[in-house]
Amino acid sequence: MSMLKNPAVKYRPFPAYDFSERTWPNRRMTAPPIWMSTDLRDGNQALIEPMNGERKLRMFEKLVEIGFKEIEVGFPSASQTDFDFIRSLVVEDRVPDDVTIEVLTQSREDLIRRTIDSVQGARRAIVHLYNAIAPDFRRIVFNMTREEVKQVALNGTRLIRELTAARPETEWVFQYSPEVFSSAELDFAKEVCDAVVEAWGATPGRKIILNLPATVECAMPNVYADQIEWMHRNLARRDSIVLSVHPHNDRGTAVAAAEMAVLAGADRIEGCLFGNGERTGNVDIVTLALNLYSQGIAPGLDFSDIDDVRRCVEYCNQLPVHPRHPYVGDLVFTAFSGSHQDAIKKGFAQRKPDTFWDVPYLPIDPADLGRSYDAVIRVNSQSGKGGVSYLLQQEHGLDLPRRLQIEFSRAIQRVTDETGREVSAGDVYAIFRREYLDVDQPYRFVGHRIASVDGGVRVEVDVRHGGKPRTLTGVGNGPIDAFVHALGMPVRMMDYHEHSIGVGADATAACYVEVRIGESPTGFGVGVDSDIVTASFKAVLSAVNRHAREAAGEDEQTEAQPELID
Ligand SMILES: CC(=O)SCCNC(=O)CCNC(=O)[C@H](O)C(C)(C)COP(=O)(O)OP(=O)(O)OC[C@H]1O[C@@H](n2cnc3c(N)ncnc32)[C@H](O)[C@@H]1OP(=O)(O)O
Ligand SMILES: CC(C)C(=O)C(=O)O
Predict the structure, then answer these.
(1) Which tens digits make up the pLDDT trace of 86-126?
(2) Does the N-terminal or the C-terminal CB of the chain have fewer CB atoms within 10 Å?
(3) Model ipTM?
(4) Which of 130, 224, 249 to mutate for ligand 2's pocket (most ligand atoms within 8 Å of CB)?
(5) How far is the CA of 291 from the centre of ligand 2 (A)?
(6) Residue 361: left if φ>0, alpha if ψ -120 to 50, beta else—which one?
(7) Residues lining ligand 1, judged by CB closer than 6 Å?
């Protein structure tokens, strides 16, 4: 089998709605919805290896810590593990007062009874009933008419009403999901939902949760939003309903569908952390929450240590989170490409505390999620001077002048081109040392003395030249000028920069000189020392030595076998 030339013979387009009264496209989200985590149910039922009791408890505690107030803790009639776990939460009093646990059941008497038994004695519980109502399911799975499908929902609702009424020690909330809602006829979805709301006896003071799932995402998110707004406006007792959505991600647009559904009138969203769940997953609540956060709206969920949440989820689900996953993936706050690095570096440099976040390419501050800036800029063959110099600045306090950035990034580029590998911050520094700081042939600095003379200074600089001790003496209008004279070479100083690294007694000085020797192209030298004059002499010798190395053709030889640290 391969892809069809004409897929229209096999697949139907989703029918369009004539719903011109829609208002959701003009709305804005201004507050978070009620969040419901279904990690321990829809997430769990989709795992290769469902969670055991220990993993379930770990996930539950993490969900509570994050701030979820409604947590679907399982499908208690499905397995003894689920049932026992839910019992342990209740019996061991592990559910905080402000958190409500939820349990799911099919509309079958034995399963409903077992489900209610599982939460016996809970302070508050949501019993969640579902049955599929879409035409395909009526025809293929149940072989039932519309009326029969409606009766399945009503029978379950009435039984749950009766069983919960007999257990007044628990505050019961009822939730109904017309499964595959988004593929069902809207008039039929309304008919079933209105009947269920009636049968439960919902009132504004005793609301029912009506959850309208995109069990299989089969249309664009705007279509789902239209369906939700239509229900929102047409349900008979909207004031007695918490309207909930439950998007899956088959088309990759679950997040958009959930956001648009809230614009369309939904009060509540069900989903899983990092989008785990059946097939391509349930909607990712982390992305939804942080999308809100990035718009200045507190989501009511705390992802201040997002890596810790990810570790917990990966442990419990035994599934990895993708490196590109929004907000959490290893690479999502990382820029490899040169122009991005350049813009980010400038963004950080111009950033002032307590102002709006305006760093190009970074929609939110990684630090808010407990992510460090260390990994923001990483260097490979796609990188430019901005990223390279950012790493030197961040890790070693070296603030390279612009033209040196350009010169040095060529040295890095040669390495990344030759190896095809990323270079770490440690590699960048090692290459910088090799290129500028550790070049001590033919001259190696040993020490110096300075004295004032008429109109300037006189310097004596001890060096090893070709391995032998020598003292160079010169006079000039300043120490560098005097040292250049002492060298007795046609060295012209083109540019000079210095800055301190660190503060206080431990501070050192970095000095950058750009020189022209004879008629050669200009080149840089760098010196670092606790004494600023020594740093400048070292910088001059670095430039002279690099020039000599270049002239001797050693440069290429050294770089032909780059050694990366990592
Ligand atoms: C979209 C969702 O995610 S919904 C949640 C789905 N999650 C799960 O199914 C995970 C847990 N489920 C299970 O472990 C099992 O399905 C159980 C234990 C609940 C039930 O297992 P079984 O009794 O073997 O039945 P099975 O799951 O195969 O169900 C099929 C039967 O239930 C009926 N059924 C399916 N859903 C429902 C429903 N919501 N209400 C009433 N009957 C239903 C089917 O029509 C079918 O009936 P038939 O046997 O007369 O043809
Ligand atoms: C039970 C329902 C809400 C469900 O999981 C789905 O439709 O995906």
Answers:
(1) 999 999 999 999 999 999 999 999 999 999 999 999 999 99
(2) N
(3) 0.97
(4) 130
(5) 24
(6) left
(7) 42, 45, 75, 77-78, 106-108, 111, 130-131, 141-142, 152, 179, 215, 278
